[in-house]
Amino acid sequence: MNQNTTEPAVATETLAEVPEHVLRGLPEEVRLFPSAVDKTRIGVWATKPILKGKKFGPFVGDKKKRSQVKNNVYMWEVYYPNLGWMCIDATDPEKGNWLRYVNWACSGEEQNLFPLEINRAIYYKTLKPIAPGEELLVWYNGEDNPEIAAAIEEERASARSKRSSPKSRKATASAWHPDALHQRPRTSPGSVGRPKPRLQPSSRDHSSKSRHSACSLTAPEVTWNQ
């Protein structure tokens, strides 16, 4: 007798399961509601206008080797000079923060966030203004998108400026301890011969087929507080 085979059911996230610390950590501009791009997940929705260039983060999770990760849906990979590639894994909601609930955009056109690696931490930055009632959606374009490439370079320039400012140098000098004079000097993140940090997206991005089917969903009916 022929039997129909079905894929295992995917557990659907509910608002009741969101940890209290995640709700407390939400910025005032956003709230959690069921996602419009993935019916099994919670999404992050704007309740107030969010300007272009707004930065959120860092993405929080357990630091693990890839071999230790059991579910690659909620993670990013970051290169650490002393550890190599490590995963920031937020599969367990108790170990993550609200950025765990930001879902992938179905296309570059729908994308309104992009990821940044700053000092070995992942941040999300708004690519364009986000209106109340829009879901926050991230996508990894690398530096192929000219606008994202410009924003990444702007962040790098800002970081270089902060490191070279008199205030930064003074703070660094005041933090020195006499014993440090006997230690080997540490090279800065941009030093020659040191591997350049690279941001590596997890394989949680959907295939084009699944993205297309997921994007056929409609946004939940929500009354936005003005």
TrEMBL record:
One of its GO terms (molecular function) is histone methyltransferase activity. The keyword Magnesium does not apply. Gene3D superfamilies: SET domain. Residues 28-141 form the SET domain. Residues 159-170 have a biased composition (Basic residues). GO terms for cellular component: nucleus. GO terms for biological process: regulation of gene expression. Keywords: Transcription, Transcription regulation. It comes from the Eukaryota. The keyword Signal does not apply. It holds the Pfam family PRDM2_PR. Residues 155-226 are annotated as: Disordered. This is PR/SET domain 2.
